[in-house]
Fold this sequence. Notes:
Elements (H helix, E strand, L loop, with lengths): L5 E4 L6 E2 L5 E6 L2 H4 L29 E2 L2 E2 H4 L2 H6 L1 H14 L7 H12 L1 E6 L5 H5 L4 E3 L2 E8 L7 E2 L17 E5 L9 H10 L2 E5 L11 H8 L3 E6 L11 E4 L2 H4 L4 E2 L2
Parallel strand pairs: 1-13, 2-14, 3-6, 3-11, 6-7, 11-12, 12-13
Antiparallel strand pairs: 4-5, 8-9, 8-10
The protein binds nicotinamide-adenine-dinucleotide (NAD).
Amino acid sequence: MVPIPRVGPGAEFEPLRIGRTERVFVLTGAGVSAESGVRTFRDAGGAGFAGDGRRPQGGASIGLWYEHRIEDVATAKGFERDPRMVWRFYSERRRQLPSVKPNPAHQALARLAQEREVFLCTQNVDDLHERAGSPEVVHMHGELLRSRCHSCERPSFVDAAGYFEEPPRCRCGGLLRPHVVWFGEIPFHLERIFAALDKCDLFLCVGSSGAVHPAAGFVSHLRHTGRARCIYLGLERPDNAYAFDECRLGKAGELLPGLVDLR
Length: 263
Ligand code: NAD
């Protein structure tokens, strides 16, 4: 039996007490960057959210990202079909990145890492956690500012360039691709991630719909060990809400700065 989670507006909850020796696992999703102006999958296609955190009724799409179909820009098949279009899409995201700034949610997580042992795992490909000062960030879905070869084993490398005309090629002759994990591909660093999950005392998930696996399954994994408190923070009830102890609803940039009582 899994207890029913407490779900409600963040303001109704008391600050979280985190003991000095507690190990905190933070998982962030697209929602943590939303207030910086980076769009999530769910707010594409004009989908809005009810102020009370309910899922939007009708017309909401999770199949679009910046007006592109997910299968066109976030799958290997889409890339193989039209590498030029996919590179244009990611080049545009790269071009926008410098004008996007970390928000109070990123900053609060960076401060938390100064005070407590934090393992910060993000599904985001942006670099906003790093720019906010988080000392170590595990990018399970890769990084926008890196590229790798689609054909050979050459390791990924830093690449902020935009490719709006011809898709770039590796020295082996194969196509280079953005160093991001597309749907159907295996995320990075899973061994490290599960080792950190198994050690954590508090699991804090921020702005993730709970619809994309394996990240969506981390909280259920923790349920089996039964050790960690599991808290969700985000605009709406996530799909995996049942597995959390608490779902505090609201904007990450408003909830996170006052969330933790470190005394
Ligand atoms: P998602 O788009 O499926 O869900 C985002 C969640 O954030 C939603 O549940 C929404 O309610 C919540 N949200 C929106 N605004 C918020 C705010 N201000 N504060 C708190 N929560 C807010 O995103 P996901 O669960 O991270 O999942 C999927 C995939 O999206 C990942 O693979 C990720 O790589 C990719 N993605 C990344 C970025 C990025 O790098 N910034 C942006 C879009 C999508």
